[in-house]
Amino acid sequence: MKKNITIALSVLVAATTWIACKKDTPIDEDGLLITTRRECYVSSFEMLGPDFVSVRVGTALIDTMAQTVKVTLQFGTDLKNLYPQFTLAQDCKLTPKIAGRTDFSDTLNPKKWTVISGDRQIQKTYTVNVSVQPR
Amino acid sequence: MAALFIITSCKKENYALPVASDKLQDQAIKRTLGPNIVGQNIEFAYAMAILPTKGKLVSCVAEASIAGAAGTYMENRSFYTASTGADVGVTVGSPSVTSKTTTTVTYTKDTSAATLRYYYVIPEEARGKTVTIKFTATSDDGETKSTTMGPYTIAKMDMKLNMKVTDGNLMYISIADTAVYNAADAATHAANIDLVYLYRNLTTSAFNHALVAPAANAQYLPGVTLPAGVNRTAKLLKTFNMQDHNLAPNLQYSALFIDDLDFQKLDLSGQPNFAINLKQEAGVWVETADGKYRAYIFFNTVATGTATVSIKRYAL
């Protein structure tokens, strides 16, 4: 009987020690969870004007093979003051981060963002092409 | 020990009716919210009371550190709230008399307690300064009691409400003049015209209501022939859900106030000189080309080819 109690206690102590020493779930430099997901794409795209109202005309065309986003904006949109919004596959993140107003006025050199997969092993760079609706 | 706790917790506390002070008492509150703007009221409610056995109220005086503008007065009625929620006034004194900085109500009814409202109309002289209001109640036993409210900072900005703009007629807006002109009058005030209001119902794009600086690209002024000399630019920033309570007092959700500080901190660098596709309850922040003024223009209502706008303006 005494032997059984000793074994049970030993197992309990070992389990507690194992749980306590278990390595934390990995997080990246942004404090985001690194998962096992390998999906890496833009699923939808929005463009907001300085009043935070959408200036998009129709749906943005996302080509996940060519890694491009094509969006037409309303006539009168000031391309220097826009807020792009990306929706990504689960657990992905975007770089560079969108910190505020973004200047899209240099249409010859379209803006690019890179999507990084949940496992942080895959990177895909998307080019965002904007055009303005004619009057 | 436990028994001690039980005894202590169950000990009955003796209640004594509070004894009313036998002195003349008073209390004041400020009823208006938001920035204090020249030409607008600051409303106060001043309550005063004395035991009926001690005497009755004789007078109530409000003394402003800067004399109020015309229209400053004190109610000679004391209000109470009826069961319906409505304020009901009972006349207790003669109509108020205002002389320079002082507004006085003299009691004409035997009154031992009353709450009088004081409406201080902010004068031009007070712009950018601070104002204090000293309330004094006097009773017939010779007592006086005073309360000073403030200091309240009076905003530098000014405001103009419900200006009607119409495409093809009253469409030239001057921030400096806070006025709207037609083409003929705009030509005579050309140096002060900052914006053109226009409305276009296009099938190819959402143009609708727009505010455009005269110097903007011609594509944003379709069909507009500018009056001679009207050529200024401006910086504009569209915004939405900025329903200022002063500019839109009747809107259900207008619970915010734009104050001097907002204009001081506003950064319109890099902003365009046009704002297209404006809607009802939209707003536009503006900075004039000469850097003398910043303004916020709010679209109260819109209809085909016309709109009613209200402006808050801050001189830099």
Notable features of this structure?
heterodimer, A: 135 residues, alpha+beta, Immunoglobulin-like, five-stranded mixed sheet, two-stranded antiparallel sheet, 1 helix, 7 strands, 15% helix, 34% strand, B: 316 residues, mainly beta, five-stranded antiparallel sheet, 3 helices, 21 strands, 6% helix
What does this 3D model show about the protein?
The complex is a heterodimer of chains A (135) and B (316). Chain A has 135 residues and is of the alpha+beta class. Chain A has a domain at 42-132: Immunoglobulin-like (Sandwich), CATH 2.60.40. In chain A, 15% of the residues lie in helices and 34% in strands. In chain A, strands 2-3-7-6-5 form a five-stranded mixed sheet, with no helix packed on it. The mean pLDDT of chain A is 89. By secondary structure, chain B is mainly beta. Chain B has two domains: 25-153, Domain of unknown function DUF4466 (Immunoglobulin-like, Sandwich); 158-315, no CATH class. Chain B is 6% helix and 44% strand. Chain B has three helices and 21 strands. Chain B has helices spanning 2-9, 183-188, 260-265, and strands at 25-30, 41-49, 57-64, 73-74, 77-81, 87-91, 97-99, 102-106, 113-121, 130-139, 144-153, 158-166, 172-174, 179-181, 195-200, 208-212, 234-240, 274-278, 282-288, 293-303, 306-315. In chain B, a hairpin with a 2-residue loop joins β7 (97-99) and β8 (102-106). The model of chain B has no long low-confidence stretch (mean pLDDT 93). At the A-B interface, loops of A face β17 and β18 of B.
